[in-house]
Design goal:
Layout: E1 8-15, E2 25-33, E3 36-42, E4 55-57, E5 62-63, H1 81-88, H2 93-98, H3 103-115
Parallel strand pairs: 1-4, 1-5
Antiparallel strand pairs: 1-2, 2-3
């Protein structure tokens, strides 16, 4: 990323650094330098080294980590709910795979579905 292109301080924010609304910072700020988050915390505690960056007031809005779902599944393409129950009962993924479950079972199911 171009140095300085996205630099700034985003203030007047409610920030949930870990994505948990129970652990929220109010009246917070995020400092970005060289396109990378360099600091997060209470706006009152903003280190002086960031004070010369452009400031953006976010209007008391939430800032949370991004959620990226990098894959999709067929709707009504089957399920592995039984495996969920096994995991809740303490079975490891390896044990489930040995029983014929896991991602391999989904792949095999889709392959046979495609041939039909």
């Amino acid at each position: 990323m171009h140095s300085g292109m996205n630099d700034g301080i985003w203030t007047n924010a409610r920030i949930s650094p870990a994505g948990n609304p129970e652990q929220m910072l109010e009246h917070a700020a995020i400092a970005v330098r060289d396109g990378v988050i360099a600091w997060i915390g209470s706006a009152a505690a903003l280190p002086s080294e960031f004070r010369n960056l452009p400031t953006h007031d976010v209007g008391n809005q939430w800032i949370t980590p991004g959620l990226i779902d990098c894959h999709t599944h067929l709707v009504y393409g089957g399920n592995r709910a039984d495996e969920f129950a096994l995991r809740l009962a303490g079975a490891s993924y390896e044990e489930i795979a040995r029983r014929g479950g896991g991602i391999v079972s989904t792949v095999n199911s889709r392959r046979s579905w495609r041939k039909a």
